[in-house]
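Shift notes (night). Ran ArsR family transcriptional regulator while the centrifuge was going.
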Amino acid sequence: MRKALPDPQIEARRRQPPPETVDPAIEALVHDIIGKVADKWTMLILEALHEHGTLRFTQLGKAVGRISQKMLTQTVRQMERDGLVRRTVHPVIPPHVDYTLTPLGESLGAAFCGVWIWAETHHAEIERARASFAGREAVPQLSEST
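Came back to this:
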């Protein structure tokens, strides 16, 4: 994922202390958004559109790879509903539809760019931890009841 420019509003809020109370509506929205973007297809579509700009439906499917037409349709519809993607139908024969990220979708991509950078920065540490864990799992563990 290419590095996105930081959002000045978000960066200003990061410098402030956390709020004393949390608005339940905001908390519910955060849980909803995390649930959706944690879905691998949403993240892959977000990344494909961020990298390539506007794509036709079939191009988007190829850019994402290994996604069924049904899942691609469901995911882009949900993203359109949430205001992350703009769907444009061209009235030609045969008709074609293309998708592009909205400014809201771009800003979500920028927010998750930090996760990409974090993973890139800590890749070696994560691989060492996984190898260490796998090594411990290979050794029979003593039962907790003994």
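The chain has a mean pLDDT of 87. Residues 8-112 form a domain with the Arc Repressor Mutant, subunit A fold (CATH 1.10.10.10).
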